Structures are given as C-alpha cells and as structure tokens.
Records
---
Amino acid sequence: MEDQMNDYILTLENITKEYPGVTALNDVTISFEKGKIHALVGENGAGKSTLIKLLTGAIDKTSGKIFYKGEELKNNSPIKSLDRKIIPVYQELNMIPTLSVYDNIFYGHEMTKGIALDKKYMREKTSELLKQVGLKVSPKTKARELGVGNQQLVEIAKALIKDVDVLILDEPTTSLTDIETENLFGIIRNLKKRGISIIYISHRLDEVLQLSDTITVLRDGEVVDTRPSYAFDEEHLIKSMVGRNLSRSTRNKEKTVKNEKVLELRNVSTDQVKNISFHLLKGEILGIAGLMGSGRTELAEAIFGRDKITSGEIFVNGELKKINSPKDAVDEHMAFITEDRKTLGLMLDLSVLENVTYASLKKVTTNGTIDKDEEKQVVEEILERLNVKYASLDEKVLNLSGGNQQKVVIAKWLLTNASILIFDEPTQGIDVGSKEEIYGILRKLAKEGKSIILVSSENEEIMNITDRVLVMSNGEIASEYKSEALTADTLFKDSARLL
C-alpha cells in the first residue's frame, strides 16, 4: 500500500463522516495524483463539501485514514493544512469589502520593508497576479467595487501568491463567461505543468470533461464511479450523479408571450450602463447576455432601483414610473433574485419559514399581529409548488442544498405577487438536476403570465430558456436576437463588439 501511495499526493482511505442522524460520507476511498487535475462531481448534498472540509482540516473524520505525501494526517486543522501547502479557494467568497484588492491578497501575510509595510511591492505583485488571472483592475480598487465574478478571480490570485502543492477549486467558474472560463483553464493547465495537483469541483459538466484528467462521482455520500475523464461522456456523468436518466433542456418551444408591454426602458443610463432601450412583454423570458463586466448585473440593478438612474425613463404597464429604490420596484410588483443569494438573497441563520415570508409579512398580518397558522399554510403551499426539499419550516436555510436555497429565494418573491421577475444567474452553483427544476419553474411562471428577465453567463441557458436575447458589451446593448436565431459564436462576437 505504501508503494502505491507514493504515486499520489493525497489519499483518502475508507473515510466515513457522521453527524447526528446523518452519514455525510460513507466508506470513501479516493486517490489524487501528483500534478494532475482531479474533478469531483455530484448533486448538492452528495458529500463534496464535506470531503473538502476534511482535507483542509475544517472538520474531522469519524473513521478512516488520510495520507499526504505518504504520511498519515492526524489532528489536522486549517492552519496545518495551509502549512502543508493545501490551499482551498471556496465558492463562498472571503473578501473584506472595505479593503483594496492588494490588501485582500496579502491579508495576514503582509510584506514589510524595515518596520513599514512595503505597499509598492504588494501593489506590483498584485498587478502581476491579476494579469495571470486576466483581471484588468487596479490593485488599489476596493473589493466592494468588484462584481462577484471579479471577486472570484481575486480569490484565485490570492491562492497563487502562496507556495501551493494542492489547489482546491470549488466552483471557480460560477460567475465567469465562456471566454473568462477558457482564460482560467489556461491558468489551471499552467499550474498543472508546474507539478501542482488540482482538485476541481464544478456543476458544469462540459468543463469538467474538457479540463480534468480524472473524475470521481459522489452520490449520497459514496463514491459511485472513478475513471479517466476520456472514459466518461456527459450523459454517463449525469446518470452516475443522479442515479437515473435525466432529460436535458432544449430550446424553449412553448411560446407564452403576449403582445403586451409590461416594462419599457427608454435611453436609461447610470454610472455603469449607457442609453439602454428595450421592452419586456407579458409571459416573456428575456435573456441578458454578455461578458463579465459588460453591464448585465448593473442593468438589472438599475431596473430594480439598486443603482441610481442618471437619465432616461422607465415605464411599467405603459405608465411612467420613478424607480429610485428597491421599495419603489417592489411597489410596482417587481422582484430581484440576486446572483449572490447567500449574502443578499437569504438570511442564512434564520429559518425556512422566516426567509420565505419576511418580504411579504403584510399578507399574514392582522392588526399588527402575524397569524402563525396562516403563515405556515401559505409557506407550505409555495414550497410544495416549487418542490423544495426541507426537514421542517424551522430548519435554518443554511442547511439546505444550493438548489433548494435558490427555490426559497424564488418562493419569497412569489409571495409578494410580483409579476416582473429579474433572475440574475439563477442556476449559479447548483447541480444539473436542480438546474432543470429551476428551468421548469421559469417556464411555468411565464406560462402563468409572469414576465422574466434572465441574466446569465451560460450560453446554453441563455439560448435554450429564453424567447429573446439582448447581448450587452461595455455597458451598452450591442445586439438583439430571437433565441432560435442565436448561436454561441454570435454571442461571443457581439459580446466583444463594443470593447
């Protein structure tokens, strides 16, 4: 066994992790080769996050052994893991909003010159790292000024500054477009050439097949398949993950659009977007596509009153409206399902029930008192409608899978009787089965007469789910297409048209 382990940098041998009433990992054995890219895939709740927490020392195993460079790891901890050059980059970002990019990258290991901070060196090194990850921002930029996708690239740059043997990437391309993803793949391949081992976790199966050397499939806390990536295809991967054949989304053939404008923007500008004009029809799913930084999210935030409009007009159901705040938007029956659901969309430490009703407590309140029975009834009904899986209404939403968390956000806004719903990256970080459920929900809402704006960096999602697509570039609308006339090549070309 020892000779065999010398071929690997990390080996998990018969690992089990139990919590009260739950077995998160059951008799898991996986070996990670030196200088290879090993992907972990599985639905939310399959055990991927638990496995990574064990490797990084955040939690301890119930039984089994972990070997690193041939030696058994005992009494592991996050600090010891970092000392061993096992560096994780988590899907949940760890940026300090008020600090600059270079301060975030060097936080905890600042460089000094004498007794003073060597800010010049740290800024120059940060510029070098940002160039490696393809991020064109100043090292002095405050983290709060960056979108989620750019923050993800800074997190990867932060990992690269350390001397790393094993780099763990948890959903690194969640907020990246295809072009930015290809750039990141180049970085990862270069790290592999340097002998660094990559553990790669992603719900995007096409990129897993393209990038990895080996793939391990987890389901219900167990390893169900491990083999070289060339021995898999996407359908085989999906079946291994979910334990059944899954029908994939095809172009939306069921048209629910009515020739009735529910929203119209005329020459709307903010500090981030310029001269935006378009309309949204009743029952329509309108896609907003473009590269990261193109203004997609900024446009959505302007519509919802989260970004100040400097010029232009917004009409709702034919009437001119002043949308100066999210409250104004909600009063006009709009909803915003944010890309950053864990920070902005949910209150993770509160219950499922509290998260669903806090935006619409008036519906279950009489004379200033919440009717608990009615509150429970309406929440159970909306959760059943969306097929949300939860243990009880009192369960913290933190404990739900990513897909079910997203459904809770949708449930919250549906209870407000919103008729215009803005979805910003609605399938970000959720598994393939949950994605199909979210797509089904979008189509059902459109069929019911709701109007939807779908902001997405996934080409397949944009082309298959929407009725019409606006392509953005450099804060402007570069082009508009009926979805059936759109191709990935066209999307790429138009996204870069105004750069």
Note: The two ends are 56 Å apart (CA to CA).
---
Amino acid sequence: MAKDNSLVPLKMLLFSFHGANTMLISFLPLLLQYKGLSGKEIGWVLAVGPTVSIVAQPFWGYMSDKYQTVKRILMMCLIGLLISGSIFFQMTTLPLLIVLAGVFYFFTTPIGALSDSLSQRRADALNISFGTIRTWGSIGFATSSLLVGKLLDVIGIQYLIAPYLFMGGLALLVSFKLTDVKVDVDPIQLRDLRKLVKNSPFIIFLFLVLLITITHRANDSFIGIFITQLGGSEGLIGLAWFVGVASEAMVFAFAGFWFRKFHPLIFIIGAGTLYAIRWFLYAFIDNPMFVVLLQFMHGLTFGIFYLAAFQYVTRLIPRVLQSTGHLVFIAVFFGISGIVGSLGGGALIDTMGGNSLYFYMGCMALVGTILIIVYHLLPYGKEGKSNSPVERDENG
C-alpha cells in the first residue's frame, strides 16, 4: 500500500499535465485559426515549441542530473508555465505570438519528458512497469480532450485559456507531494555529456526515428484542422482525441503483460508499419467520423512506439545521464520532428489539403520503418552495456 501511495502524486501530475497538454495539441491550432492566422502562420507558431524544446529539454535535463532532482526542476517549469501561459494565450498578432510562444514553450516542453523520466526511475526503483504509471498521463489526456471539446462547443474556442490554466495549476499543486529520486552516483559533469555524443547506437537511432516521428507530430498539429476541413466540430475533434488516447492508455496500462516478450526494436518496427497504414487510410477519408473510428490506431502506433523507444533509449544510456539522455530523445521525438511536421504540414495542408498531407506522411513512415529494420539487422541495432554508471574520464 505504501508503494501505491507514494505514486499517487506522480500519477496525478501526469493526469493533470497531460490534461492541460491536450488543449495545446488538440485545440491551440483552432484558437490560432480563430485569431485569423492561416495554416502556414499556424505552422510557424506551432514550430516555435519544438524549436525551443531542442535547447530547453537538454538544458533542464542537464540541470536535473547536475543537482540530482527532478521534483524541483518540475516545480520551476510549472510555475513558468502558468505565468507565461497566462500572457501567451492573450496575444493576437503573429510577432507577439511567436515571441511569447518561445518563453511559454521554454518552460512547458520539458515537463512531459521530466515526468516520464521520473516515472521510469520510480518504476525501476519499485520494480514495476513504467507503462502502469505513464498510463495516467494518457487517461488525463483522453478525459480532458473529451470534456474540453464539449466545453468549447458551449463557451467558444476563445476561452481556451480558462481550462488550460486550471489543469496547469492542479499540476503545480500535486508536484509539491512528489517523491524525488536520488541516483547513487557522483553528480554529472559537462565532460560526461561526451558519453552521449560518442554513443553511436543512440545517435543513429535518434536520426532514424525522425522519419516516423515527423509524421506523428504533423498529425498532432493538423488533425483538428483536417477534421474541420471534412466538416467536423470542436466536439468531434475532442471525441477523436479521446478515442485515440484511450487506446494509448490501454496500451500503457497492459505494457507489463506484453512488452518484455520481444526486443524493443521489434515493437518499434511493428508500430512504424502501423503508422504507415494509418496515414494511408486517412489519406482517402472524406467523412470526419471515419477519422474518429480509426483513432483506435493511435494506441497501436504512438503508444507502442513511444514506450518501446523510451525503453530502448534507457538501455543505451548510462544511469548518471538518464534525465539528459531522456530529454535529448524527447527533444528529437517532439522537438526536431515538431519543427518539420509543423512547417511542412502547414504548407502542405494549405496548398494541397489534408488528404495529400496524410499520403506523404504514410510514405515517410514507410521509409522510416524500412530503415529501422536495416538498423536492427546491423550491429548498431544491438544494445550495448552503457546502462551502467559512467566511468569518469580522469584526464578530463
């Protein structure tokens, strides 16, 4: 019982933060559209977050490893989220939106990665499945997408700030009760970061997943606009996200039963194949309800892909660099991929429409999956022994 009680604040943090985050992913593009921005301009604003995350996530990850605390870094970021978010959501012109988005995302983007890193560490310490903890983020995302979608149908997309700050405030409150994790090694030094740069399997893997994660982030940014292009409403967008993230929650919740049966790369390849199939199906849809019905594949794609990739990266990086390594991975998964997905997706959906966007996404996911199969067959695809504590370079 003590074990369960110690995880309640962490599960509530995941629930509330991802509940807030669903509003950014599902409804922020619609708010920007309401403010008069074009698809290309929306892409520019959405690309700010991934761009900033490339610096913000490794920075906050390094600070977490250096001072051996995830809890205090999370609290700082959540305070920054509330202050900057209350200003960002009020902006109406493109230059101000871009500038304030930079400040807002500097604090916001590391929170999910830090909470996942803390969840992975707590799961390892308690000898339980990471997925059983992480599923609470999916539950929060699914619940919020459904309820906020219905709420915005009533009050209007222009009032998105109210439910967002409510969930962000709840996340800050529960963060005070988190159980931190101490690593029984010396604090990280700057020279230790060379261990990540020289970790060839880690670096190659990050490059290869880009082709798949770019398509995932493009979908995050534009599925709402795609549904409205097909004649759907904000409520239907919320329902689509609910179906998708509910399936994701199921995948995470039962990860302990299926995940250890095969090498993580096998699951990554399977999820990549399903990504390609999913996008090709979306490319030929002309009714928004079909998007909702096919959203169950979100769990079979993102749920499996993210869990397997996160676990694989954990095996590749040393314990003293866990937060840094995790946040570098997240910076690639959601950062670099988000920049390309937002800018490229915005241009494509403006000029060619949503169906063409999803066709090209299917082609990219297919190529990415083939490359990961090649990686798995080569020696680089075999995990090393770098998950032990870093051996210091005495020569500096």
Note: The chain has one domain: 7-381.
---
Amino acid sequence: MLPLEGIKVVDLTRVLSGPYCTMILADFGAEVIKVEMPKTGDDSRAYGPYVNGESAYYMSINRNKKSITVDTKNPEGIALVKQLIEKADVVVENFKPGTMEKLGMGYEDLKKINPELIYAACSGFGHTGPYSKRPAYDAVVQAMGGIMSITGPGEGQYTRVGASIGDITAGLFSAIGVMMALYHKEKTGKGQKVDVAMLDCQVAILENAIARYCVNGEIPQPRGNRHASITPFEDFTCKDGVKVMVAIGNNGLWKKFCTAAGHEELIEDERFVANPLRTKNYDQLKPIMDEIFLSKTSDEWYESLVAANVPVTYVNTVDKVVSNEQVLARDMIVEANHEGVGPFKMANTPIKMSETKGGYREAAPLLGENTDDILKNYLQLSDEEIEAVKAKGIL
C-alpha cells in the first residue's frame, strides 16, 4: 500500500509548478484527477518534444494521473468541478491570485462545501503582499529571488539556472505543504489553505548567500564553478582538455587529495592548512591546482581520486546522466509505455522508501481519457446524463 492511497486530489494546475506538485502526490498513491480545458488541455501539451503526437514534456510531469476535460469558463462546468471537490481531500491550483475567486472557487468558497478541504495554491508571489496579483514565470522569479545574481562565470555576469528551478522548488514545497496539512487534518479533522510562492521558494534556498550578506554585509556575486566558502571546490582542466569537478569540503579530504596527487608538501603549507586559509589564499592556490591537474588525464584523475575517496566527477552531459550506472541502479530513469503513444523515457521519483515504493506506475493520460469513468464513479452520472452534458459542449 502506498502512503497516500485513498487521498483524492483535484488538480487544477497547468504547465510546471502545480503539475510537479501533484505528480509527487500521485507517485505515492494519491488519486489525482487532472481537470483540463476541452480540446487544448494543459498548456504544456503544446510543448515539444513529441512522441507520436503527444508532448513528452507533458507526459514527464503528469504520470500516474487521470484526465477529465471540463470547460471551467462555463458555469455548468464549474458546478461539475465543485462536485468533484466536494468529494476530494485536496485541491491544487497554480493560477494568479484572484482567478479562482472570480470563478467562485477560492478557498473561502470551497471550504463552505468541503470544510475539511486542503486547498494548495502555488503562485508566483503568493496570496498576500504588494506583488500578489502580478504574473510570473520561472525566469522572472529566478532574477527577482537572487539565485540568478549568484550564478554565472563572474561578477556581473548573471545566468539563469538551466533547469526551471523557480517552478520546481515551488512544486516541491507545495507537495511538502500538502502532506503536512494532511497530517494536521488527520490529527484535528481540520482542513486549511497552503499558500506557496515561487519567489519565497527562491529566497528559501539561497542558504549561504543570505548568511554571508546578513553577517558580513557582503553582496554575493557569481564565482563560476567555485564555492564562496569552501576551497578547493570547483572544476579543473586535465591534460587531455577534459574537466573534472572536485569538492574538497574538509581538511581530511584535503590531506587525501594532496597524498593522491603526490603533493604531500601542500598539507603542511601554512597558507593552505585549513579551509578558511585556503579560501583566503585562493589566488595563490588556484595556479598550483591548475598545474597539478594538467599533469594527468581526466580518466587518471577520476580513477585515482575515486580510489582515495575524494569527491570527484566528470561534468556529465545529459546523455551521460541517463546512462550512468548509479542513476540506473537507483531506478531513476524509467520507460513509460502508453497505448497509442509508444515507449519513452523519463526521470523517476528520487524518494526511495523501504516499505512503500513510489514513482512511475502509469503513463500520463491522454487529454480527457478518463472523463466518462470519473463522471460515472465520482458523480454517479448515467450514460444519458453524460451525453447530455457533452451535448452542451461542457466536456
């Protein structure tokens, strides 16, 4: 039995942050009913690449869900969705604040028909504050939230993080919020609203950047691939021109590295005997490290440092990631197969539990694939009633 089996979720989300949240819930057993607009569905269904006409982007973040199409611009369509929510434990939405209220489905509206409901709202700036009603996308919150200002090759050279970390962290925190609310409900019987802002999530993960500013008044800047507080902690070019990433996070690892590199003299060098000194004297240590790494090929360094138990890796491109032996051993790449779509690979859940294995079970649904079943099983509509609703263009 999966930990969230029996939990019913009405998913009103689209694109990334909301669907990522509900995918996590679905991966661990929640029954997620994804409500989509007829004909078009979730915006991400129009994002490539495609597998036999279906978006792999959409399929990679909507597995284990069911899809029902309902026109939520139609009052009768909204009435149908409300009937689903009456029977749900959780509703998740990622509209701009105020949108759900205009539809008559804000938290205050919905808790009247389902007092125990957990209402999770994932938005750009949250449901309070002066920016609340502004639209937001990943790039906007990365820039506003500071992470972009500490990412890049050097001072003033700001770079967006390659993955949509603004959306994904919001999806992660939303899922955590839902599960905490479910636990609270189990103890008290009370539902509540979970309000997660993409901007807040970016601030929450800035960790030592905020600490450095608040303690020292230092405004952090991009430092390329090096760490601001740990040295050496960056990539180095080897004899064959290939880079390896090395992370020497404590003095014990420094000694192991120096020994494996054949430069034991550096262990007692007063400039480098402790991490604060290595960081302070970075400009003196960097050329020494560069010269050391140019003495061997990347394979030679990789093998010798792995043997010495020093954290090291090649800088893997995605093709190397999806074939990496550790990634595969952890069942992190799975092949989905949907009738009419065919096989395609995607990342699996990173949460590994000893008793309740979550992750991929079913491929993402085709648009409206489960509409009839949901109306019959949840709302007890007859075939004739379903056909009558369809005739109105609501489904």
Note: The chain has a mean pLDDT of 96.
